[in-house]
């Protein structure tokens, strides 16, 4: 209750004006507060019901969006074994696959591994110093010039190469043997296109001898692989997408058999997610619209026409979709997907995992096409759900409308507060005027009493 005390205690009348004003204002605002509280309670009750159903529809929309993707049911397993293996392992390669990789067996022969180019120089006595000059180093279509200062050691030349050529992917180092120091220049990138070439641009015989003494230790070579008789090459020892979605990490030359199969559990999961989310949506509507006969208590949306319509539309589209699957030969006996039967026929779905997995193993392409894509099961059901929880969906708009009602109740409360403030001031003014009048009357009464008393004394 608001505090309407104003420091005036009823001097003339003795009335507790502040208390009287507070009680009168409270009596005035009680019916208005009750009306607004009832409106707010009803709105919040409905909002909770619409919110729970909307959340369930949102979850269903998320599950359907995942199932709509063309690779949603394309989960795969992969295994490989090399021909020389006695333990079932693969010494030749390792394979990984993504969704949609064509299932089957692939005979793969690694003909050559990719290697990085490496040059090794002749022995140079420790402490040798070189005259000034300039080198040109090229790799992979790019080149840099390397300036050699007068009096440079072999270590200085190594550092000069690294400073200028590291960005190309070239690494120079010094190796020491019994004969002396050796300059090693190597590419950090595998592949035939990444061969290193060093030329003398200018300088004396010492630099010319150093450059001329560089001999190839490891050739720059591409990896070569035969996949079911088809040759593919790669700069590195990873072969990607020669088979769609498959990556091969090469270990050694040799022959390997790679087997790609449908991952039954992972392919079934997006369908199971939709079944669970659909059932949750049906149950959310049932809960929000239920009526407890024992306690004679309605739920937040008991008898709500919108919710009845939503449940009816879900059941209708699901009936159509299951019927269309049956026409394609994917009925309950084949696919394992159907509505729950009597005596628990509440409109929810059941999925027989064993039947679904068997159907996927027998005809994965047909089932994937039936459920995924722009015209599949998921897309059509998603269109219906979008009509409820999309940007302009009916549940979305209804939620906005209820929130607007709550905002209006808050505005009405503010108006009531302002009116009650005005009412309190009016009551205060009236009581102050009454108190003043009673004070005047009291003064007059006292005066008359004194006069009468004096008159009586004179007559005595």
Automatic annotation (TrEMBL):
Secreted among keywords: yes
The residues covered by the Flagellar hook-associated protein 2 C-terminal domain are 220-442
Q: What is its main location?
A: secreted
Q: Which UniProt keywords apply?
A: Bacterial flagellum, Cell projection, Cilium, Coiled coil, Flagellum, Secreted
Which Pfam families is this protein grouped with? Answer: Flagellin_IN (PF07196), FliD_C (PF07195), FliD_N (PF02465)
Instruction: Give the subcellular location.
Output: Secreted; Bacterial flagellum
This chain's function reads: Required for morphogenesis and for the elongation of the flagellar filament by facilitating polymerization of the flagellin monomers at the tip of growing filament. Forms a capping structure, which prevents flagellin subunits (transported through the central channel of the flagellum) from leaking out without polymerization at the distal end.
Listed under subunit, the entry gives: Homopentamer.
Q: Which family does it belong to?
A: Belongs to the FliD family.
Question: Would you tell me the protein name for this molecule?
Answer: Flagellar hook-associated protein 2
According to the entry, what is the taxonomic lineage of the organism?
Bacteria, Pseudomonadati, Pseudomonadota, Gammaproteobacteria, Lysobacterales
